[in-house]
Amino acid sequence: MIEFEGVGHRYGDHAVVDDVTLRLTEQRIAFVGANGSGKSTLARMINGLVHPTSGRVLVDGVDPARQGRTIRKRVGFVFTNPDSQIVMPTAGEDVAFSLRRKGIPAKERERRAAEMLARYGLAGYEEHPAHQLSGGQKQLLALCSMLVLDPDVLVCDEPTTLLDLRNKRRFVDRLEQLPQQIVLATHDLDLLDDFDRVVVLDEGRVAADDLPEPALQYYRKLIS
Ligand SMILES: Nc1ncnc2c1ncn2[C@@H]1O[C@H](COP(=O)(O)OP(=O)(O)OP(=O)(O)O)[C@@H](O)[C@H]1O
């Protein structure tokens, strides 16, 4: 369970998140809101990339602001731009690199990397230069490199912005099949029909928190 308890965040005098209290127990949760409404800031707090300036966040009782290393083993984060996440020259090496601290022999790391790539539509791409993959393939590679670590929770910050419509759909279909709890910050409202819960943010506050249909209806009115 992910808990936000009276969470606020300020940059200087500017409050970008203001008194957010949420208990997130559902499997598929989305944060939506206008540009600058605080989606990324909240999402980043779940794995300790950003710390609250007031209140606290707990993930299964662990505070990411205090136990960042522990939390990052349990919470995987997929960024908007996969180039910021891809660190190795080839796709296979990139996925295998994630496993470097697990004490797994090199051959087994390679095998697991190939298996993960195959599962996400990148079979045979082990030797492919990672930076020559298409935008959509890079998104999938970033996802593979995260999922190979088998996190409990997956936080995705606008992971579909570089994808065409078909790949957006595919990406979200794949997310939906995962056993992990997923928190997705997104502007792609059409992808959220099957989500369990949509939290609408407005100027750093929770403006609506509901099933996708009523929450998105509220949001569309808010921005019209
Ligand atoms: N490092 C920073 N320093 C100062 N202000 C920041 C910093 N990071 C974010 N902000 C501000 O915090 C506010 C919320 O930003 P955030 O990225 O959480 O919004 P968002 O809802 O994810 O927006 P978008 O949809 O544009 O990605 C914005 O006004 C942004 O300018």
What attributes does this structure have?
6-stranded mixed β-sheet; Rossmann fold; 3-stranded antiparallel β-sheet; 7 helices; 33% helix; binds adenosine-5'-triphosphate; 9 strands; P-loop_NTPase; EC 3.6.3.-
Overview of the molecule:
The protein is built from seven helices and nine strands. The strands form two sheets. The protein has a six-stranded mixed sheet, with helices on both faces. A three-stranded antiparallel sheet has the order 2-1-4, covered by helices on one side. α3 (91-98) crosses α4 (106-119) and α3 packs parallel to α5. The chain is globular and about 50 Å long. The two termini are 33 Å apart. It has 224 residues and is an alpha/beta fold. The longest helix is centred in the middle third of the chain and has 14 residues, at 106-119. The protein has a domain at 2-85 and 153-223: Rossmann fold, CATH 3.40.50.300. The structure holds adenosine-5'-triphosphate. Residues 11, 16, 33, 35-41, 185 line the site of adenosine-5'-triphosphate (ATP).
The rough form would be described as: globular
Number of helices: 7
* Number of extended strands: 9
Q: Which small-molecule ligands are present, each listed once?
A: adenosine-5'-triphosphate
Specify the structural class. Answer: alpha/beta
- The CATH architecture term of the domain at 2-85 and 153-223 is 3-Layer(aba) Sandwich
Q: Kindly, what is the distance between the CA atoms of the first and last residues, rounded to a whole number of angstroms?
A: 33 Å
Q: CATH fold name of the domain at 2-85 and 153-223, please?
A: Rossmann fold
Order of helices and strands: EEEHEHEHHHEHEEEH
* Main sheet record: 6 strands, mixed
- Percentage of helical residues? 25-40%
Mean pLDDT: 93
CA radius of gyration: 18 Å
Taking strands numbered 1, 2, ... along the chain, how are they ordered across the largest sheet? 5-6-7-3-8-9
CATH superfamily of the domain at 2-85 and 153-223: P-loop containing nucleotide triphosphate hydrolases
| Uncertain regions spanning at least 5 consecutive residues | none
Domain ABC transporter: 2-223
Enzyme class: hydrolase
Pfam families: ABC_tran (PF00005)
GO molecular function: ATP binding; ATP hydrolysis activity; ATPase-coupled transmembrane transporter activity
